[in-house]
């Protein structure tokens, strides 16, 4: 395992950090964790040298922190730093913040959280939380030893990112970043800004929620033609770790084989590890993806549940996969599931209420996209 510098904090952490959002393959919203399997995976990564573990109050229907707390018994807690997040939609005053932090400490079975994040803030929510004293609460909790670092995670546009990061004395930021998102959300500009301020950057969705792990044929052809042979996952992680501002790359593994593969990859990657030819390859790969992808849905499920049961990420994943890999859409298991008459979840059920669009961190025009998708792949 390679270890990297955390900017101005003067500490190091593992290049690979485990994300505890996706155990079972599906994050949040009613999905419970396969606890035994999750605990084994968590201990496997720690035994493999990982020192950074990321969770949040809301993950896996609020069970993720509890499972992580159990996994970190038997001496594992002392071997890692924990990052978790305050669920801002449940906070209206300082009492709420105190209660939620204590609940998180109890679930994690620890007396302190290392990296405590305001979860998914944008300019609007940041102003709200300033108004109710969230920055002062975080500072007070640092002094009290209940948290070590004041941080935020972010999915908004670059201008919001620049405003928020310059508006407080942050210890760390967590952004979505990968070779496809150079101009999306905080993007490369945001990464470089954080770096120039000495603020370490933790990366989420480095594989775009797994989409970059399976190269479509036009991308695979580029990888195959390159003299150095690596898997799609390795190219994606290698590209991220080439950036010196990146402290840790989170990945939400679901299987021991994925953990083993990632442990191997993060043994070999460091700032400046990509040659000019390799960087050109990734530019070509990006273009090849852009040529094929229908919609930039990461499967994060923040838009769910839909009040009228439309399987929004499911529809988009079928649409993208059909475009990337071809084949008969009716062979797709998700397609068969959402068109099952007993539990229909198809776009024609959409009431156009707009709730999903307000919740989507990718700011997708979901309502129109559902119509277009269904016109292309529907019955
Ligand atoms: N704060 C926020 O707003 C926020 C939002 C999103 C994520 N996060 C955090 O960031 C973490 C990382 O994001 P992410 O889970 O989206 O990471 P990611 O690395 O983009 O995607 C994880 C998925 O990639 C696939 N994968 C991982 N390693 C693989 C390997 N070696 N071979 C093949 N496939 C592999 C798995 O997909 P399959 O399941 O298909 O096998 C896995 O579920 C999350 O777990 C969470 O802790 C935070
Ligand atoms: S706009 Fe349509 S898909 Fe989105 S939440 Fe409302 S009913 Fe569901
Ligand atoms: S539509 Fe948006 S909120 Fe819903 S899963 Fe996709 S990226 Fe996430």
Overview of this structure, please?
The chain is about 40% helix and about 15% strand. It contains 16 helices and ten strands. The chain has helices at about 35-45, 60, 65-70, 95-110, 125-130, 135-145, 160-165, 185-195, 215-225, 230-240, 255-265, 275-290, 310-325, 335-340, 355-360, 365-375, and strands at about 5, 10-15, 15-20, 50-55, 80-85, 115-120, 145-155, 170-175, 200-205, 245-250. Bound molecules: NADP nicotinamide-adenine-dinucleotide phosphate and iron/sulfur cluster (2 copies). One iron/sulfur cluster binds next to helix 13.
How would you summarize the topology of this molecule?
Elements lengths: L2 E3 L6 E3 L1 E4 L15 H13 L4 E3 L4 H4 L1 H8 L9 E6 L7 H15 L4 E6 L4 H9 L2 H10 L3 E8 L3 H9 L5 E5 L10 H10 L4 E4 L12 H9 L6 H10 L4 E6 L4 H10 L10 H17 L19 H14 L7 H6 L16 H5 L6 H12 L2
Parallel strand pairs: 3-4, 3-10, 4-5, 5-6, 6-7, 7-8, 8-9, 9-10
Antiparallel strand pairs: 1-2
This protein binds NADP nicotinamide-adenine-dinucleotide phosphate and iron/sulfur cluster (2 copies).
